[in-house]
């Protein structure tokens, strides 16, 4: 078997990820795209910029790089995270734990 300087190329299959962002983040992303266009003279959509923004963020996170180098903890990323319902105004059941009618303390 040949000893090539170029190793086997990594998986380059793109993955589509759909996210929902809040109004403030959406505006910030659109503002970034506007500044990008003013800086480089080329218009790029937010959709085109986001993968590069995420890659730059991950590349600059030293704690993340260290954790990847040392080995990440095992997680099951195929299973979606469980969402908890946030309490709503007037929702006493979600806002406070169940309270027993008997006292824990006796005189």
Please describe what this structure looks like:
The structure is a single chain. With 107 residues, the protein is mostly helical. It has a domain at 23-69. The protein is built from four helices and no strands. The protein has helices at residues 23-40, 46-60, 62-70, 92-95. The longest helix is centred in the first third of the chain and has 18 residues, at 23-40. The chain starts with 22 loop residues before the first helix and ends in a 12-residue tail after the last helix.
Q: What's the structural blueprint in terms of helices and strands?
A:
Layout: H1 23-40, H2 46-60, H3 62-70, H4 92-95
Region (Disordered): 68-107
Organism: Tistlia consotensis USBA 355
Biased composition (Basic and acidic residues): 68-81
**What Rg, in angstroms, do the CA atoms define?**
24 Å
Q: Could you estimate the helical fraction of the residues in percent?
A: 40-55%
For the largest beta-sheet, the strand count, sense and barrel status come to: none
Elements, N to C (H/E): HHHH
Can you tell me the overall shape? extended
- Poorly predicted regions: 93-107
How far the N terminus sits from the C terminus, by CA atoms, comes to 83 Å
| Total number of helices | 4
Name the beta content range: under 5%
Structural class: mainly alpha
* Averaged pLDDT: 80
Total DSSP E strands:
0
Give a short overview.
The chain has 107 residues and is mostly helical. Helix content is 43%, strand content 0%. The protein contains four helices and no strands.
For this entry, give a set of tags.
extended, single chain, 4 helices, mainly alpha, DUF2274 domain-containing protein, 107 residues, DUF2274, disordered C terminus
């Amino acid at each position: 078997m040949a000893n090539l300087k170029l190793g086997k190329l990594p998986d380059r299959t793109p993955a589509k990820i759909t996210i929902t962002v809040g109004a403030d983040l959406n505006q910030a992303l659109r503002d970034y795209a506007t500044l990008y266009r003013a800086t480089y003279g080329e218009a790029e959509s937010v959709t085109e910029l986001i993968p590069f923004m995420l890659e730059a963020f991950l590349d600059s996170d030293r704690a993340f790089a260290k954790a990847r180098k040392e080995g990440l903890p095992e997680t099951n990323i195929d299973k979606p995270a469980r969402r908890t319902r946030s309490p709503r105004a007037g929702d006493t059941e979600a806002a406070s734990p169940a309270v027993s009618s008997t006292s824990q303390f006796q005189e």
